[in-house]
Amino acid sequence: MISRIEIEETNRMIAESNLDVRTITMGISLLDCADPDIDRFNEKIYKKITSYARDLVKVGNDISKQFGIPVVNKRISVTPIAIAAAACKTDSYVSIAKTLDRAAKECGVNFIGGFSALVHKGYTESDKILINSIPEAIKVTERVCSSVNVGTSRNGINMDAVKKMGEIIIETANLTKDIDGLGCTKLVVFCNAVEDNPFMAGAFHGVGEAECVINVGVSGPGVVKKALESARGVDFETLCEVVKKTAFKITRAGQVVAQEAARRLGVPFGIIDLSLAPTPAIGDSIAEIFQEMGLEHAGAPGTTAALAMLNDNVKKGGVMASSYVGGLSGAFIPVSEDHAMIEAAKCGALTLEKLEAMTCVCSVGLDMIAIPGSTSAATISGIIADEAAIGMVNSKTTAVRIIPAIGKDVGDMVEFGGLLGYAPVMPVNKFKCDNFINRGGRIPAPIHSFKN
Question: CA torsion angle for 91, 197, 288, 424 (degrees, to 10)?
């Protein structure tokens, strides 16, 4: 039973600290929609998505009103299209992206994820078709998100895919340059992608998942910051206890929403992702948590240690509140979506290299970072390779969501709006890595991956 005190605490977190359920994401399997005729395939997936998710938005809104907990986003994830559409006889999956977009609009969700491929060990023909379709697919849709997994700790890194994704990111940026490369905000490159992630742009419904599930992502950096305000001057052990207890409360609120959403929609509850996902709103920032811990700005010496401590104790507190914690779970460090991270980047406290170091201990990786539009595809591939190596060696999920700002240079600003925010264009190391990237092939898995 949830006590009156817990209810009162939750109400205060909502009213004073920006607590919300960031997303209810319905995962839907499209495996049974396989068809060699792409038109029939599109017809099947549209019918299935709109059938399962027709009440998703209404249920989310009803729960929000009943429990008083803001449910910000309602989303859908589907089986990676490179898998689901593999039987289709076609040379482009753009029409599939349009169908996903149409289904998302019909259901009223803000994003649909799963225009994805898993190529960590090699390509199928369907993988190649999907990856080549990404730039045009993102350009002609509003709500479709795309992801590509290029490495795992068990299989190493597919460097051919890493090279290709650098080129795809540049092409996507060019096709959406009139809106500051907005298309790249809906494209993420992973190492160790997870099958039950409810957060975009990397959400897809893994082949090991049930026919249909509800996954919920909670968020509460503002709640953690507020709690730490009462713990100024305490030692690290006490600080960790504050974070753990706060994460427990945040996750319990999400658990209530997740179970109720699953019940009302008649589908199984999957997981709670207890990630701290910031927004551009003041007071809802990961970087403000660092400042409350004693750092002048995110990026100052000690930032990686502060993030490691935050991430670990969020997980420790959260797993006590729910039997099914999954997804990414921890702290996200997107630049454009966190006003204090933006300020740190603008004043020079936060650099791309420091962000890379922080990704060793955060939940995802280099996220929502604007770079000069003149950056080469090979340099972007090098950044992806570095991030994938961190994930591969440390057996964790890492990712790159980077936005080349075509026609802009260091210090200029890009504007995305809404939760995506805005960001300064950050400098990139100017030394070349072309010959390294052009080697091709696969970087083998590290020796400690052989655990059988």
Answer: 0
201 preceded by a cis bond (ω within 30 of 0):
yes
Residues with Cβ within 8 Å of 343's Cβ and at least 6 positions away in sequence, in order, are 287, 297
Beta bridge partners of 77: 27, 113
Q: Give yes or no for a contact between 221 and 286, defined as CB atoms under 8 angstroms apart.
A: yes
What confidence tens digit (pLDDT) does each residue in 302-322 have?
999 999 999 999 888 888 877
Average pLDDT over residues 146-165: 97
* Residue 66 φ then ψ, to 5°: -70, -45
Handedness of CA 296, 302, 308, 310 (dihedral sign): negative
**Is-contact 337 278, C-beta < 8 A?**
yes
Distances in Å between the Cα of 60 and the Cα atoms of 23, 194, 260, 265, 274 are: 9, 24, 10, 10, 18
How many other C-beta atoms can be found within 10 angstroms of the C-beta atom of residue 294? 13
Q: CA–CA separation, 190 vs 171, rounded Å?
A: 18
What is the rounded CA–CA span in Å between residue 311 and residue 289? 12
* Cα angle for residues 128, 126, 368 (degrees, 5° grid): 55
- In this structure, which amino acid lies at residue 344? A
Name the phi and psi angles at 449, rounded to 5.
-75, -15
Residue 400 bridge partners (DSSP):
189, 366
Q: Which pLDDT tens digit goes with each residue over 59-103?
A: 999 998 888 888 888 999 999 999 999 999 999 999 999 999 999
Distance CA 47, CA 44 (A): 5
CA–CA gap between residue 388 and residue 385 (Å, rounded): 5
323, with CB counted inside 10 A (0-12, 13-18, 19+), is: exposed
Based on its alpha-carbon atoms, the radius of gyration of the chain, rounded to whole angstroms, reads: 21
Please tell me the pTM assigned to this model. 0.92
pLDDT for the residue 1: 46
**319's tokens:** 């797993």
Could you give the CA distance from residue 209 to residue 196 in angstroms, rounded to a whole number? 8
